Amino acid sequence: MAHAHAHDAHGHDDHHGPEKGIMRWIKTTNHKDLGTLYLFFAFTMFFIGGLMSLVIRAELFVPGLQFVDPEFFNQMTTMHALVMIFGGVMPAFVGLANWMVPMMIGCSDLALPRVNNWGFWILPFAFGLLLSTLFMDGGAPAGGWTMYPPLVLQTGNAFPFLIFAVHLMGISSITGAINVVVTILNMRAPGMTLLKMPLFVWTWLITAYLLIAVMPVLAGAVTMLLTDKYFLTSFFSAGGGGDPVMFQHIFWFFGHPEVYIMILPAFGIVSTIIPTFARKHLFGYDSMVYATASIAFLSFIVWAHHMFTVGMPLAGELFFMFATMLIAVPTGVKVFNWVATMWRGSMTFETPMLFALGFVFLFTIGGFSGLMLAITPVDFQYHDTYFVVAHFHYVLVPGAVFSIIAAVYYWIPKWTGRMYNEFWGKTHFWLSAIFINLTFFPQHFAGLAGMQRRVPDYAVQFTDWNVMSSIGAFGFFVAQFIFIFNMLASCFGWFGRKQALPDRVWEGARGLEWTVPSPAPYHTFEDPPQLTEAESTGAPAKAH
Amino acid sequence: YTDTSKGYNLPTGVTEISQEVFTLHMWIFWICVIIGVVVFGAMIWSIVFHRRSKHPKPADFHESTTVEIVWTALPFVILIAIAVPAAATLIKMEDVRDADMTVKVTGYQWKWHYDYLGEDVAYFSTLTAESNAARQLKSGVDVNAVPNYLVDVDNPLVLPVGKKVRFLITSNDVIHAWWVPEIAVKKDAIPGYVNEIWTRIEQPGTYRGVCAELCGRDHGYMPIVVKALPEAEYASWLAQQKGGEAPTETSAIVGEPIEVAAAPTQTASDAAVDAPIEVAAADAAQAPSKDALVQKGESVYKANCAACHQANGTGLPPNFPSLVGSSVVTGAPVAQILQLLKGKNLMPPFGHLSDADLAAVITYTRNSWGNDAGIVQAADVAAQR
Amino acid sequence: MGSPAAHNTDRYYVPTPSAWPFALTVGLVAVVIGVSGYLENSNIGPLPIWLGAALSIYIIFRWFQGIARESEGGLYGAQVDRTYRWAMCWFIFSEVMFFAAFFGALYYARLLSLPWLGGEGTKLATNITLWPGFEATWPSNGPAGLGGEFQTIPAFDVPLVNTLILLTSGFTITMAHHALKEAKRVPCIAWMWATVALGALFLFFQAEEYIHAYNDLNLTMGSGIYGSTFFMLTGFHGMHVTLGTLMLLVITLRLMKGHFKPESHFGFEGVAWYWHFVDVVWIGLFIVVYWL
Ligand code: HEA
Ligand code: HEA
Ligand code: CUA
Ligand SMILES: [Cu+2]
């Protein structure tokens, strides 16, 4: 039935198929085209951000300054983070949402296709502006991605470009998020009640709310930086009655939800992949939804755990410690549910599953260190050391980035109609897993032993940890080329890869996206399909 | 850095607080390890035994409210077991009452200033010259051979053992953070605000720390050294300091008005920086010779300017311009004086230096590396304040 | 599954490819580059700003013209209408959060940072060692007295008048809405012109107020934290009023061209929502910025 429908949709989509050449990509309003653009953009940014991290790791390989000036080092740290977060992870998730949300909820496109195009095309320009500062007099911004004043106000010519680039990224994120919210609320196929939606859709819905709530706050914060620098205001200077710490409050009010923006879609991806390869329904679907919502809610009241050392009143320190610790509870529920999903399943370990499992292990390790950081008196020792760097890379790289990689492996057969190469996929996984741990595990030790972050050079007793970390970083970077070639080969049909895949590429997969042909036609679900119990990813009906 | 440092873990430290913190740290760590063993154990079990080859037919359970409640409640209880001792320690740490003495710590780009309140002892503390030379880009020095590379200073902070010392921490320019792991003290130095924290060191020794908040180019090069002395030794050290024997040439500016922390923006610093009139007047009366100025200027330069503009004055363009033949250095002195007082772009203001030091260092730059642009006296500097 | 013939009428409207968004981005980026150059005194001159702004305005105009045409052409079904409603709601919510950042700054300054500078709570040492003698009061330009002595604008003066103006405009636009729903086009247009006029009047008074503040009261952006929060909050609000007034104007002109139907007129409603939002923000401003 569903199958027949999909072919039906295929039948009359030629009336407005893609245009040809570059204009297709500039003018496209198609969610699949835009998803592709987002993913290629994110890919490029991951590459650039990765190169910057290699500059960092090369300089830190051994003590002493070998390659770059300290100022340039700080520029690399700052730009690495901005590029990875705003250029890599976030656009990658938006790209996945573009591709998959309409296919998962059974609608023809995102609700606002032209706005979708706008949201995408802002990004290359925003990052063009940001990266161009590397070539300016005085160089790129070097005050850290957190942009704390007064330091960031010492930035030279790059300063307004930094601010405006952030504004533009904000516009892009907000428009994208509104689009996702509206699509999910307004365009679901018949039968797709909220509690039948795939978890990826759920997590994105909640992520989109977070984005709409906090990106404007970031815009406000950087606007105040701009006026403090050029228009005599004194939000962040004590002399005028302001406070540099006020910026940190506003920034982290954005910044903490931001880190969940980078992890909730990842949770959704993992919650999609694990049931497929365990051949079992997701355990505790409803509790997964509630846990996601709780995490999002809590994320608004924990921001000051990034600022325990600024000298807050004791009551504040206690409150933010307790609130932060609470996040471990709903996150734990998620982890336990994943484990219960695997429990007594019938698992196979294709590449997407490997990355999803890697995610569960390594994200949890990052979560544990997060919990340690939440303990205020001990955070005084951890804060601004490599222990923190280790924490957030564990949740970001084998966390967010692994989930993106897993998602690409999982859905690329659907996108291109060509399977990736399983051998190279597995090789990619094992190399990535080994090298990422080699990169970031030793950083825990360096941090505990006293190595502070954001320094180009260090005392000699940290040498061993840093040598390992740098070797790991180079190894990880190189391993990603396997991925690039494997994916491009599927995109372009290299090595004689044929488009001969069934609609349901993974036998255990559920969901509407698996009812359309592989590759998915340019237009899918122009007429909404009926969701059947077999394709429902929500909690199965009690009758079962 | 020190004897008690383990190299892979937090130091136990030498204060009651630092030991409590260490215990807490290990407590949370082991809790995480145990939870990890359970969770990962279950996962690995499942990966090994519930793979398709071993377990071809998947079970079909998919929810259980009881289980969900259990694994919501259990972590909650565990968290309480962490939160209670953590709160107790935190409350102790924040209790700065009844201190025996107070030291005011001021962060500068990129050095620390210590002021023993009520004792008339105050001085700067900077990275040692040896480390500083070795840390330059492609210096060619084997840093492994430099003793205490990057964690040694010219003038350590000297503290008595067994006394409750209160620190007032603030900054003169951007945010820094004063951190010494062995005493578990890390507090941000915020321009325009003062943070308080305390310690009571139990063992004599040398404890090293670093600036722990990104503060610009040389953030990695403003270490902290605390030397804890038995009370009697400390007393004699203090007496010696009061005897007027200044720790170094460049920081012989006791009584300098660092209280007026310049606010970060230029407008604010104008209002806030106040000249040490007496010092200036005294210096002006003597009007040192060019040679004396250049000689003194050289050491001021090494301590304050060389990090960016380099010992040979060529700077590190484009961020740090060369002073050789620079239009500012060879042009009208007033412009150069103002730039030193107020800063420009990345260059921080140096208004905290005395008029005499500024005059000396300006004269030095005007008469070195082929520059030949006359001398500047302390009175000229005072006139621009 | 429905027969193929049924598709075209009740399908969700998906627009054809469009170059507007890309061109709009180019325009915005040109403006941004121009402004950055101006702020950092580089020599690229004002040309990018003017060209970029002109391009952006032209594109926005064309884009909305296109939407109006599609709407009048009957391409939008009920579902598209719902899309616009949701989207407008969440857009306004994002604007609320933007203002929240500045309200938060005001709150922080008044309740936390100024009292701290005055030595309250754990920050006694801040006052004694850094800012001796400073007493936290509101309004304040901080312990360094940035910008010198200044006076504030009394709430129950022009601001009160402005409050009344905006409240009235909220009333007039509601009247216009009722008229539209009852298909009384002429009164609707009249109420709309009244609303536009009130918006413009508000802006006129606000501009006067700014001139007065700068010239007579020595109240400027540089007047410490009071001047900062005052001008940023009222300034961003004023920008929103400007935008709102322009949108009202466009809607009025469209009404005069015969657009909108009594039963479907989301363009009108969206602008009305926006206008109410601007109104509510002003009430907040009046209370916490001018009055308290
Ligand atoms: C994807 C991003 C991401 C995620 C998901 C998290 C998750 C968490 N983070 Fe992290 N964090 C960052 C990204 C992220 N963080 C970044 C980027 C920074 C640094 C920013 C900067 O300064 O530049 C940072 C910094 C940071 C700090 C500040 C450190 C400092 O600067 O001093 C703190 C402090 O509380 C913290 C805490 C936490 C906690 C408690 C979680 C929790 O959500 C984790 C919860 C998960 C678990 C606990 C594991 C699974 C749970 C169980 C198996 C249940 C049972 C467990 C227990 C009862 C223990 N993080
Ligand atoms: C998502 C965010 C993200 C990611 C992915 C990374 C990735 C890496 N980071 Fe990152 N890093 C940050 C966020 C991130 N980092 C942040 C926020 C900071 C703090 C900055 C500050 O202090 O201000 C930081 C700081 C930071 C430091 C500390 C610098 C300092 O304190 O001075 C170091 C040092 O080793 C480091 C190293 C690395 C390395 C080796 C990687 C490697 O993992 C990089 C290799 C990765 C790739 C090559 C990309 C691979 C991805 C793909 C291939 C996916 C494909 C995509 C699609 C199909 C769309 N980073
Ligand atoms: Cu001072 Cu970092
Ligand atoms: Cu956080």
Architecture of chain A in CATH? Up-down Bundle
> Which band does the percent of strand residues of chain C land in?
under 5%
CATH class value of chain A: Mainly Alpha
Assign the structural class of chain C, choosing from mainly alpha, mainly beta, alpha/beta, alpha+beta, or little secondary structure: mainly alpha
- Low-confidence spans of chain C: 1-8
- Outline type of chain A: globular
CATH-defined architecture of the largest domain in chain C: Up-down Bundle
Bound molecules: heme-A, dinuclear copper ion, copper (II) ion
Determine and state the CATH class of the largest domain in chain C: Mainly Alpha
Question: What class would the helix/strand composition of chain A place it in?
Answer: mainly alpha
- The shape of chain C, in one word, is globular
How is the biggest beta sheet of chain C arranged? none
SSE series of chain C: HHHHHHHHH
Number of helical stretches of at least 4 residues of chain C: 9
- Segments of chain A where pLDDT lies below 50 for 5+ residues? 1-15
β-strand percent of chain A reads under 5%
Give the distance, in angstroms, between the N- and C-terminal Cα atoms of chain C: 62 Å
Q: What's the total count of β strands of chain A? A: 0
Instruction: Give the radius of gyration of chain A.
Output: 23 Å
EC number (chain C): 7.1.1.9
GO cellular component, one term (chain C): plasma membrane
Enzyme class (chain C): translocase
GO molecular function (chain C): cytochrome-c oxidase activity
Features:
heterotrimer, A: 544 residues, mainly alpha, Cytochrome C Oxidase, Chain A, 17 helices, globular, B: 385 residues, alpha+beta, five-stranded mixed sheet, 12 helices, 15% strand, binds heme-A, binds dinuclear copper ion, binds copper (II) ion, translocase (chain C), Cyt_c/ubiquinol_Oxase_su3 (chain C), cytochrome-c oxidase (chain C), transmembrane (chain C), Cyt_c_oxidase_su3_a-hlx (chain C)
In short, what is this structure?
The complex is a heterotrimer of chains A (544), B (385) and C (292). With 385 residues, chain B is α+β, with helices and mostly antiparallel strands. Chain B is 39% helix and 15% strand.
List the helices and strands and how they pair.
The complex is a heterotrimer of chains A (544), B (385) and C (292).
Chain A: H1 2-11, H2 22-27, H3 31-60, H4 70-105, H5 113-132, H6 158-186, H7 199-230, H8 244-261, H9 264-278, H10 285-298, H11 314-326, H12 328-342, H13 351-374, H14 376-382, H15 386-416, H16 422-449, H17 463-492
Helix pairs in contact in A: 3-4, 3-5, 3-17, 4-5, 4-6, 4-15, 5-6, 6-7, 7-8, 7-9, 7-10, 9-12, 9-13, 9-15, 10-12, 13-15, 13-16, 15-16, 15-17, 16-17
Chain B: H1 16-49, H2 65-93, E1 101-108, E2 111-116, E3 121-125, H3 129-134, E4 157-160, E5 165-171, E6 176-180, E7 185-189, E8 195-199, E9 205-211, E10 224-229, H4 231-242, H5 266-272, H6 277-286, H7 290-304, H8 306-309, H9 327-330, H10 333-342, H11 355-366, H12 378-384
Parallel strand pairs in B: 1-5, 4-10
Antiparallel strand pairs in B: 1-2, 2-3, 5-8, 6-7, 6-9, 9-10
Chain C: H1 4-10, H2 20-39, H3 47-72, H4 78-117, H5 124-130, H6 158-181, H7 185-217, H8 224-256, H9 266-291
